[in-house]
Specification:
Shape: rod-shaped
Strand content: 5-15%
Number of strands: 14
Oligomer: single chain
Helix content: 40-55%
Largest sheet: 4 strands, antiparallel
Amino acid sequence: MGSTFSGIEISKRSLFAQQTALQTTGHNVANANTQGYTRQRVNMVAALPYEPASMTRSAVPGQLGQGVEFDQIKRVREKFLDTQFYDENKTLGEWTIRRDTLEKLEAIVNEPSDTGIRQVVEGFWSAWQDVSKEPDNLTARAALKEKALAMTDAFNHTGKQLDDLSTNLTDNISVKVSEANTMLKQVANLNNEIFKIEGLGNNANDLRDQRDLLVDNLSKIVNITSIDTSGGYTLRMGSVELVNGINVTNPIDASTVAADLTSGNLQSGEIYGMLVSRDQYLDSYKFQFNSMVKALVQGPVSITLPAGSVIPAGATLTGATPGTTLAADTKVTVNGINGLHALGYTLEDPPKSGIPFFTLKEGATEFNANSLTVNPEIVKKVANIAASSRTYVDTDGNTKVVRGNNDIALALASFQNQKFDFDPSSNGTPLLTSGTFDEFLRAIVGQLGVQSQEATRQTTNQQALVDQVDSRRQSVSGVSLDEEMADMIKYQHAYNAAARSLTTFDEMLDKVINGMGTVGR
């Protein structure tokens, strides 16, 4: 037969089980707004009935139930949704960085606008037009000098901003690598703590939540795969094992992430986005601006010199002989603005051929957006600007410059509509192989606009995917206050009923112990 006190034991077990369920519900409610928290549930099971099957069991028919017990407090979570979240989150991290970088590039280029490079370049060509109208006017030449300085300053500033953005991305890569390595160490430490706790038969639910939140955040920085083993999480980036149990086996190295990208181990995430932004976007646009500057200063271009032009001795050109006077209009090839400017004559007598209009900054070895500057001799003395292509011999037999001639100034002003060859090099391929400077700049702006629009679209779409997966995950693992309140009432009623049952059994035992066997005393 059953124990006399079995009813009390059944009620006691129910009280403990319902009390634990109430406490767990309170824990869920308290963490309803805690990031990364997974709702918990008490797993209740029926206690082993009396009597268990054995050779010595009594002959009492049936099995008498012994109430309820709870065997664990478990998290309500689906690993499949976590894996989906990691996959979508890494792509979101990549496109977020790409979009931010392209937006910064748009701010640097600042086109179309009234204050961008295009305006100062057009101002430079307009200044040559003004000089061609009054080639011996020093005021027009001074204005040209200022427009040229404004243009070189704009290129210098753009080049510096591109370099600064590239440096900033490199620094941010190091910051993100450090952040990721810190998270890897924390995951390894949590693996150790969870292993110790769960080795005693308990579920380390809150520690597991902390670990999963770290992996969530890590998945946005680099592409992560997570495998739950008996020793804890094993984390991989491609084929590279980052964490195994309590050890960080291969911390991420800022100096080797570019190699990881090349090998295919680094496939997405914020670090990937930074590398792509720096090594593709920024390097490409720096190359485009440098190509434009090189073509402007020394790129081969064909022009027609009018009859009567006197080619200075020592001039570098194709199609005419230096030191001769052209008998007819002649098509020649010169090396950019510097090459054409060298064919002209300054305002000085005896005739002095033009000096390079643009020079390199001190320490520079080639023309680019950063190194371009106006020749200091022209900055100091605007008479050194060459506008005339003709000389004459006066009555005294002295050779002098025809100051009113504007052949070179007109030719230089025509460069605005002249097609240049933008040759590819080992550093990249220009957006246009042939075109005007305005067309080339519009090609840069157009490509940048399309890339920025695509990055914005990808980021928006990816954010929607991440939100969708996270919403599904929250529907499984998130805390619903309505559901918890309903559960709290359910457990409270069950607790009250168990308490009432315990009181009933207590009253029954009191009658047996204190009321029975007293007749005849």
